Amino acid sequence: MKSLAVRIAIALVFNAITLWVASVLPGVRLGAGFLWAVVVFTAATLLVKPLILAMFHRRHAQRADGRKRVLSKAVTMAAGLLATLAILVVTSIFSNGFTINGILGWIAATVVIWLASFIYDFVDDGLEAKANELLGGAASTGKP
């Protein structure tokens, strides 16, 4: 249970930083409900992203064989971009602390936050293990 709390806390902090960084982009604004926007963004990431990625991978698995490595990477990247866009739409609809205006704002925010998700994927396991070590728990480096 402690490990789940640590994982959620790390995700909330990282997502807060990511949304704050994205707010410097044209058309992207933070509001008074920023903390709620972070909670909505984190929840949407946990719910929407796996659904979209699974949908793309299921369709791609039906059409591609093992020889199409480049196509597989492109499909994964497209799925990630689409998932990020969907997460941003959900966040902007259900929170008043994060808004995006204009096509340039939507494109820039989607790409920047999608790139930030790569960074998060590289560091989250190490951060979780270090936090669990500092909290006196067993270091868990694998994702569930």
From TrEMBL:
Transmembrane domains' residue ranges: 7-28, 34-53, 74-94, 100-120
Alphabetical keyword list: Membrane, Transmembrane, Transmembrane helix
Protein name: Phage holin family protein
